Amino acid sequence: MSDSLSPEQKEKLQKMKRTKKTKQVEEPENTEIDTLTEKLLSAKGEYRYAFEEKNDMKEFDTLVPDMKRKYSFELDTFQKKAIYHMELGQHVFVIAHTSAGKTATAEYAIALAQSKGMKAIYTSPIKALSNQKYYDFRKIFGKVGIITGDVVIQQPDDLVTIMTTEILRSKLYQDAKFIDDVDWVIFDEVHYVNDEERGVVWEEVIMNLPPHVKMLMLSATVENAINFAEWIGRTKQQKVCLVKTLHRPVPLQHYVFCGKSKENKEDALYMFKKGEISFLNENYLEAYKRIVPKFMKGKKMFDAVHDVKHLQQFIEFLDKDGKLPCVFFIFSRKLVMDYAKRLAKSTQFDINAYKVQTLFQEMTEGLVESEKNLPQIKEVKALLLRGVGVHHAGLLPFLKEIVEVLFSQGILKVLFATETFAMGVNMPAKTVVFPSVEKFDGEKKRFLNPGEYTQMSGRAGRRGIDPIGNVILFPNKVLPSSTQMQNISCGAPAKMKSQFYVTYWMLLNWLTSGSDDVSEKMIKSFSKIDLFEMANRALIAQEAQKVLEKDEEQAKCSNPNCDHEALILIKKEINEIRRKITEEVFIAKAQGGAHFYKTGRVVKFSREGQSFYGIILDKVGEGFTVYYFDKTEGRVTPINLRDIKTVYNKVLYVKGTENYTETTIELGDKKIKTALYDRLNSIITRKYQEPLFQPYQSEKKRPMNVKELFSEYTKNVEIMIKMPAFTCSVFKKFNKESGRRNKLQKLANDILLNYESNKMVMDKDLENRLDVLKHFEFIDKETNILTLKGKVAKEMVSSDGMILTNMLFDGLLNKMEVYQLAALFSVFVFEPSNESMEELIGNFKPETNELIDLLEKYAMEIVDYENTKNIEYTIEKYVKMNYGLMEGVALWTLKKPFNEVIDASATTEGLIVRCILRIEQVVEEVTRAAAIIGNEEMTKKCATLTELLKRDIVNVKSLYLRDTAIVEGKAHAQGFKPILVDTNEALDILDKIEDNGRIVVGDGEEEKISVDGGISDVPFETENNDEEEEMPKPSSAQPQVEIDF
């Protein structure tokens, strides 16, 4: 090709050579383009705010010389890490097992706030835990407040205020200034962010906390804590320290219990897991072989409900082996009661009966006589006097607290509980027992997931008391296979997953707080962490585009004949011809094509948007290994055909290349490397003189298309070097960075396109929801400012604000009687068991059905319009309305006895009280709403309703909110009169119940028992959804057993 150029053209090319040989390839300067490219690349998939502390804290005393709180024990390493970073003023996320000591870090956060003259807020997911923490912190700090839906105890000088996360959310929206003097917010059980219904609350609070507030987050073990920490850091633009520990202060040992049999005369424990080590498969299989054949032969195993003897023997075994007190975790409320009653009737434990009696007297002092004699109260008291405890969500709140206090003080040795006992309430035992590791989750029966098993197992082992904690499978059902049990006990913990969704109430609050662009708030949610990352990168991409535009403006030449655009176009055309010629090299059976593969062939290839000259070392599959220079370093890289831009006729002799790696190459003598370096420089400086590789040995044998390509290539090169722009110094400077400019341009364009397309989908959904608010006149159609209706709806967080506001403005609430209002409000807050909605509606009175129809009419108006805006909702999806307590609540408001409310409600006493307490929250919100519009009649009705709701058994003050001396048995309330206690009285109660042929179950229902004492055909309910299922029977039916030997 070079022979076809004129002497003048050759001269021009020669001038482009370097005047002086150099041992270093000239590289473009590190410009702003490089910086922006690096920013865009590094902004993806990198943890810029979250980090995990790896320091062993051996120098802790030096790092934290002035401890704000003293401890009577040596802090664990993870606690020291958390305290150190709290002292640095950083957010801290603590991941540790149950009972590992996370509360100690919470205490330090409170003390740290106190040292600055500021306050702390402690949030918990459940009221029971809030009450217990109030009791605990009050003993430590003295000045402690509490705000829940049930109670408000608050003084201006409180050091810490305990509240549920929902209360904190509401307060942040209602009065942002209340948190001005708060230094730390502590989120206990922050893994509740995974909760499908309530997880959104945690995200809202974190997003809305002001920048000066630091967060201490406490969580059970989760898999992707670093991602959650990074989200918080990006949201707050602050560092977040992740502190993780797998250490348990009290190590656990996991067993399968195998009782006596004809073949095996002794009880036996088979350990299948010790501490945090891997699953002991052989031990588990030994237990499996010993147990499963009984099922295969149709024999019953340890069915404690049907054969209490096995349960007694097991308890005796635990007692002799020093493994009491213990907690049985059972996933059915009815089975909890059945286990407890059978054991209590056959066994009398040593019990401080006087303590039981006094606690009951304290808690029932204000109850009317009929309430004191409620079956549930008498039954639980009888069980406790026999030394057996029960704990489940269906119990009255104060009964659960009595059980908790007695168990925490070591008075109870055996406790039967559902899963809720493990959720937050800190009541460790020496041993945890699982009669089954299978549960109904509301949709299907399944084995426990690793997180659930770990949470409950973590209640085994009392720090400072027990050297080890015991977890025992006491199977009364099918024993899981070894594979299943390994997954249950050793599987990966759950991932933190956003449950964020936008509600109309949330939008009203965002608009009130002055958020002009609600989509920007949405982007900050954990669910949009990818979009949030895109948004950050999009800002950099926009900056990059401005820099590129500025560079293009500066690259314009003052010479009118210097056409840079034309030069760029012809260079692109030349490169395209080169690419086509290169393809010819790979034409199958091309004459001379094999010469291309030889070591030393010089090629020009593209890598990450930049061009390099390299030397082929060998062929690998469909690609090649190429030696090239990156800056001044010789490197090796694999390339594909599509990476090659130009193939040159030049072949360099390369010796000693056998010992290269994927990143570097050792060529032996340094002179060889230098020679290659200089030779490539020579090729680079005269690239248009260097002949292209021709895959055909003679011109005659070239196909016509190849001849045309070579002819076109030569022609375009001749045109190019005659162009004024070819020698233009301005263009040369601009073009020197063209590869990196192109890379940045493509990167910026891709990022902006991706961000805009994703944001468009989100914005459309928000726009549709705003249209719904406009249609029903909650916000102004032009300004998005809240209307009077919008301000009213914003007050209602516990119910559906849009439905109630529409009913209020239409005058319907004013027309209702007080008892009807209570029934209406219950629909939004009642969390039922697994009752059939159709059956309940069929059994309602006509008046109740009319109220339900009216409510659904208002709901359907909203749903129908939503569907026109492509928000595909049904009534059930739009708002959860449960009608099961409407008539029961109405009776309570009409001052009927509580036992009549139970009869009308077909649910447990505990759920009834919980619902009534939550109705009070709705009433409080409707009261504020009525005040906004000056509706005095509604305000008076709400005041009356509050008085009617909060009375007698619903108004029992939490045990944890009473004087600590009363809880500890060191004092009594005024007017207390001691009563002598006979523990046989409890047995008489249980005997009388069964002598009448009836047995009262925990929720107040009565079931028949068979003559032989075994329960027949008694359905049981699960903690979550009370799925009805037959209890296991000692029949000859062979159950399905998965055998894994």
TrEMBL record:
Record's keyword terms, sorted: ATP-binding, Helicase, Hydrolase, Nucleotide-binding
A Gene Ontology BP annotation from the UniProt entry: nuclear-transcribed mRNA catabolic process, 3'-5' exonucleolytic nonsense-mediated decay
Q: Which GO terms describe its cellular component?
A: Ski complex
Query: Could you tell me one molecular function GO term of this UniProt entry?
Result: nucleic acid binding
Domain Helicase C-terminal: start-end pairs: 310-552
Q: Does the keyword Hydrolase apply?
A: yes
**What's one Pfam family the UniProt record gives for this protein?**
DEAD
Task: Output the InterPro entries linked to this UniProt entry.
Answer: DEAD/DEAH_box_helicase_dom, Helicase_ATP-bd, Helicase_C-like, P-loop_NTPase, RNA-DNA_Helicase, Ski2/MTR4_C
Residues of the Helicase ATP-binding domain: 83-240
- Region spans: Disordered: 1-32, 1010-1045
Specify the protein name.
Helicase, putative
- Species the sequence originates in: Entamoeba invadens IP1
